[in-house]
Amino acid sequence: xxxxxxxxxxxxxxxxxxxxxxxxxFKSKKSKNNHxxxxxxxxxxxxxxxxxxxxxxxxxELGAKGFIEKSQxxxxxxxxxxxxxxxxxxSRYIMKARNHESIKNEIKKMADKNQHEARDYLAENxxxxxxxxxxxxxxxxxxxxxAILDRHILALxxxxxxxxxxxxxxxxxxxxxIEKIFNKLSKKLKMSCAELDLYxxxxxxxxxxx
Length: 210
Description:
This protein has helices at residues 3-11, 15-28, 34-47, 52-69, 72-81, 87-97, 103-113, 115-125, 131-140, 151-159, 172-188, 193-205. The chain is mainly alpha-helical. The chain starts with a helix and ends in a 5-residue tail after the last helix.
């Protein structure tokens, strides 16, 4: 069965309710304060080279206040306790990210005007945030026009012949090339990138996470 048909079948199933609920949660984040946005930024720093569930557990334990106030040692201990492989590196990235504690003030106007420009800014200015993580962060705070090219999405695109092979490294140029393919699919299905991502992620994992 073609990928488009599989996705449409999912949209016509009970999974639609879970996807719609998640999209509503993301939209609600737009009105949250700097600290809530910063918490999502730290969450996305934690998701790189790790499982989403691990990052979710760490975020729940630390809370927005913990990401801002805990010492590096305390951060590392919490990250390590949740079996994240890179606790030292991630705690350092979060400490460094505190330079962007007022992240909403920094990028909201930019993101409202041009989501791609906001993503460029994040990837260039926040340590531990690349194009995938920046896209993930913007999606989680209610901006739905960017592709989150994680291993599950890439694998599905390859399995259904949208990609000839999986990239060894996801350079900026390669990211944009694959994003064009993803965008074309989202337009064909009349979905935002955010909605399409959730359905495709569910196809690979059986879950609808953030």
